[in-house]
Specification:
7-stranded mixed β-sheet; 7 strands; 40% helix; globular
């Protein structure tokens, strides 16, 4: 995945990427975490942003406090690097969700979010945003419009082609650039 993203960004570098899915339980948070760890181990400065302001999970995955985070940074005007927490993995920081807001889609779709994502490139080589599923709520679509690229996580055998196509159409409708799809939980014995 890391290598493919590097090659996908030859003409247009991908400094911030949103990882989303069509529905819940497809493995996007795990994909964000694993991709972030591997990329940081490769020597890049990586920030994982828990932009799922409805059901945040990155703080639990990495055993971090979630008293302040993305929402704090946006409301108080603090740079991501100032609020992000370092992890035990060198080069990897986590910007947890922070307190959950009443208006998640408006917050992640705001002009300030775009400005902060762009500004984060001075402190980080790559920013990966974990977002809610795009079919359920509009947060992921708002983020797709803000980021350089989108990776869609699809759990094999659980989501219909029609739903995946609808998710891709929604991303493309806001000029989101789909970098690729992670086909998750493929059973090679069953799926050939």
């Amino acid at each position: 995945l890391r290598t493919n993203i590097q090659f996908a960004g030859l003409d247009q570098p991908c400094r911030n990427i949103v990882i989303t899915s069509a529905g819940m339980g497809e493995g996007k948070t795990t994909a964000v975490a694993n991709f972030g760890v591997v990329t940081a181990q490769g020597g890049l400065r990586v920030c994982l942003v828990d932009s799922d302001l409805r059901r945040p999970a990155l703080h639990r995955l990495f055993g971090l406090e979630n008293t302040q985070g993305l929402t704090s940074a946006l409301v108080k005007g603090l740079p991501f690097a100032e609020v992000a927490q370092p992890t035990r993995i060198p080069n990897l920081s986590i910007l947890t969700s922070g307190p959950l807001p009443p208006n998640p889609a408006e917050l992640v779709g705001s002009k300030r979010m775009r400005e902060f994502l762009e500004a984060a490139s001075s402190a980080f080589d790559l920013v990966l945003c974990d977002s809610p599923p795009v079919i359920s709520v509009s947060d992921g679509i708002a983020l797709a419009a803000q980021c350089d690229g989108v990776i869609l996580v699809v759990r094999a055998g659980t989501v219909s082609h029609e739903v995946i196509r609808r998710a891709a159409d929604q991303i493309e409708a806001v000029k989101g650039r789909i970098l690729g799809v992670i086909l998750n939980r493929v059973d090679l014995r069953r799926d050939g």
